[in-house]
Structure formats: structure tokens, C-alpha cells
Specification:
The chain contains eight helices and six strands; from the N terminus they run βαααααβαβαβαββ. It is α/β, with parallel strands linked by helices. The protein folds into two domains: 23-38 and 141-257, Rossmann fold (3-Layer(aba) Sandwich); 41-134, Transcription Termination Factor Rho, Rna-binding Domain, Chain A, Domain 1, CATH 1.10.720. Strands 3-2-1-4-5-6 form a six-stranded parallel β-sheet, sandwiched between helices.
């Protein structure tokens, strides 16, 4: 198993066959959430089931809300795409109104079970979670090394950004309600799939441009190798985050960290 990267102020993180991280160049730290700042279990065992169980009453309550209606229209369009691609999604019936509601719920729950990155679904989930956070049913969770890392990187005058498949609203809700308090004051920018999917090089170029920094000024951290590769293709530096220390880590593919303690220490 590949252990934590060797760190020194002189040469940064190194692993065979991969360029070292140049700490002096890093101005922006861009972070994934699931498996990076927050446990996968919290997402799959808390957030997703909550959204799935609340989907029907939420759609009923907000049936006349134009924003929610636009999300449902987006789901309808995606359902047609899934049908054409042979994915066999639940059928969609537009009339009467109660049939459309049932179709929206069945298809939305099907997408949630598949961990779909469908943007209308993610925006809808964010709205549902907003209610859960507001009434105290949900509270954000991060790994214990995240708050001190945020504080450290801000002391170093580095910018912190978040890039997740979850909606910007969902991201903000999570970081606003952690046991360590509101962490959003440390975060300068949030990005979701509206800039593009996380496995596409162009998405990272858009993020760099939006923050008026060259891609080489970024350090991207994620637990997904395809995302690491896309960020590197865009010119960013990147580290693979493997929170499961007991798991076999990829060999010779990426720098690997197991927590944030060794990332840009004071």
C-alpha cells in the first residue's frame, strides 16, 4: 500500500512518476466533499435517504413554486434521455397532475438510488435538505482535521473553494452547520455541476477563470482519480485523498494523502 506522501518544504509531496506539488505556487485550494471533507457514509446513509423520503411531501407542498416546477421539467427532460439511452427509468405520465407528481417522485427516487449527478435532481435535493437543516433534522458533518486545515490555509492567505456534484446550496448548508460551527466564512467560492461535470478538464478551466487565477495556482483534492486526472489535464496540481487508510491505494498514479494535517502545514 502506498503510504502518506513524504513532505518537505523544499520539494513538496513526491511519489514515483509524478511531479511534486509546488507549495510556493499554490494560491487556491479546491476541495471535493464526499470522501474528502465529509464521510461517504454521511452522504449515502443520511443525506440521500432524507431526500428520498421527503421528496413526495416536498413536491406536494411546493407544486406551484416556479423554481420547483423548473426542476421537475428538468427531471422530465432527463427521464427522456435515460429512456433513449436504454436505462429503463420509471415511466413518466404528465396528466393528470397527481400522475405527474407520482412520476416525479418515482423517477427522482430512482435517480437518488443511482447516485445520479443530474443537475435538476441536485438542485431539488438541496432545497429538500435546506428544510432539514432549518428544522434541525440535519446537521453538517466534516472530518475533524477539516476545520483546523481551513483556519491554517486562511492564515496562509490561500483561497479555499469547494467543487461538488451537490448543489451550491447543499454545500453551503453542510459547511454552515457542522459541530465546529459555521465554516463557510473560510470558503470563498462554491461550484457545482453547473460549471460542468467533475471528470471534464474544461470544468476546472472554468473554475480557474472565474477566480481570476491560472490553473497552476490551484491545488485540487478529491477521492476520485478521474477528477484528479481532469484537474491535472487542466493544469492544476492535485492530490488524491484516501480517507480509508486500510484500503489499497493506487500505486504510481497519484500523490495520496489520508487527511489534511500534512497538506500545506505551517
Amino acid at each position: 500500500m502506498l503510504g502518506p506522501p513524504i513532505h518537505s518544504a523544499a520539494d513538496g509531496y513526491k511519489v514515483a512518476g509524478v511531479s511534486p506539488i509546488d507549495e510556493s505556487q499554490i494560491r487556491v485550494i479546491l476541495l471535493d466533499i464526499e470522501g474528502t471533507t465529509t464521510s461517504v457514509d454521511f452522504v449515502y446513509k443520511t443525506l440521500f435517504p432524507f431526500a428520498s423520503s421527503k421528496l413526495e411531501p416536498f413536491l406536494q407542498e411546493h407544486a406551484q413554486d416556479p423554481e420547483i416546477q423548473s426542476f421537475v421539467q428538468g427531471l422530465r427532460a432527463q427521464q427522456e434521455v435515460d429512456e433513449r439511452n436504454g436505462l429503463k427509468p420509471p415511466p413518466w405520465v404528465d396528466e393528470p397532475e397527481d400522475a405527474r407528481l407520482r412520476s416525479s417522485v418515482a423517477y427522482g427516487q430512482w435517480l437518488i438510488a443511482r447516485d445520479s449527478k443530474c443537475t435538476p435532481l441536485k438542485l431539488l435535493q438541496g432545497k429538500i435538505w435546506q428544510q432539514g437543516f432549518a428544522n434541525g433534522e440535519l446537521h453538517g458533518e466534516v472530518y475533524p482535521d477539516v476545520p483546523p486545515a481551513f483556519e491554517r490555509w486562511r492564515r496562509q492567505k490561500r483561497i479555499i473553494g469547494i467543487y461538488s456534484s451537490g448543489s451550491v446550496l447543499a454545500q453551503q448548508l453542510l459547511f454552515r452547520s457542522t459541530a465546529s460551527g459555521d465554516l463557510t466564512s473560510h470558503v470563498s467560492a462554491f461550484f457545482d455541476t453547473r460549471v460542468g461535470t467533475k471528470s471534464e478538464e474544461q470544468s476546472y478551466k472554468k473554475i480557474a477563470s472565474s477566480l481570476s487565477h491560472a490553473a497552476r495556482d490551484f491545488l485540487f483534492i478529491s477521492d476520485v482519480m478521474k477528477e484528479i486526472q481532469a484537474a491535472r489535464s487542466a493544469g492544476m496540481q492535485a492530490l488524491l485523498c484516501d480517507r480509508d487508510v486500510g484500503a489499497d491505494s493506487p500505486r504510481g498514479q497519484s500523490d495520496v494523502i489520508h487527511d489534511f494535517d500534512s497538506v500545506l502545514p505551517d
